[in-house]
Amino acid sequence: MEPWKRLLREKKILIADGGWGTELQKRGLAPGEPPEAWNLSRPGEVRRVALSYVEAGADIILTNTFGGSLLKLTKVGLGEKAVEVNRKGATLSREAAGDRSLVFASIGPSGEFVAPLGTISEADMIQGFAEQARALAAGGADGIVVETMMDLAEARAALRAAKQSTALPVVVTMTFDKGPKGYATLMGIRPEQAAAELARDGADMVGANCGTGIEAMIELIGRMRSATSLPIWCKPNAGLPELIEGKTVYRETPEMMASKLGSLVQAGANIVGGCCGTTPSHIRAFVAERKKLAGMA
Fold first, then answer.
1. pLDDT in tens, 9-38
2. CATH code for position 93
3. What number of other Cβ atoms are within 10 A of residue 178's Cβ?
4. At what angle do helices 43-56 and 82-97 cross, to 10 degrees?
5. Which terminal CB of the chain, N or C, has fewer other CB atoms within 10 Å?
6. 176 in Cβ contact with 139 (< 8 Å)
7. pLDDT computed for residue 297 by the predictor
8. How many folded domains does the chain comprise?
9. What pTM, to 2 d.p., does this model score?
């Protein structure tokens, strides 16, 4: 049995890590600076973010490779170092995790659309994601999480690339907003549709991340659960960002978010972490709340 399946069977609820971008910003990441560049220029800081989540009790931590696709890195002058950036990102999280946490490497959107919506062919999109996935596997990742996707065609391309180029389990999560007609991605993909189609395409887990706080995520995850029996991965923001005195603030505290863990799990979530604005304190609170839920089971 794969390690993540064994761990999920044992613990029932797995806790993933929290935000990476906002944690790196606290350590000096400048606006517009590609976080992935720090894998090479400031590896100690990247490792410390990973370690902070391991020490908070996360069962799964991610990697500083969200913008690590060849297409994305080429735009910031790092295309020639794509393999090195991704392999190093996985290695840093692997070093921090040791045998205490699993490492699921992050693959985010490329910033391009598959033709005919964009100019990139599906084959080129797959090739770019495959190069990233192979480097992440070489760096020691236990799995891959394709996250924050809005276009189903791109999500499928990343899933296919990871499956074809590695033997790792693959999670695919999309980002949804609530409009007059309910939840959908920017490209109009509904949660039920995403869950069902990604499951058919071979994802090991599906889910949602970013875009909303934990209260709204409860309803969203319930809709995904209605369409699939796969494990569901969920990483809400610490609320919606607010600009206060020139600083971005997320208002959902660790205690507020942890108090909703039971409802989120009841809605169908199996793996719960945090996205933008969440911190090691949020993850520590989730771990503590899981213990309470286990005691009531």
1. 999 999 999 999 999 999 999 999 999 999
2. 3.20.20.330
3. 13
4. 40
5. C
6. no
7. 53
8. 1
9. 0.96
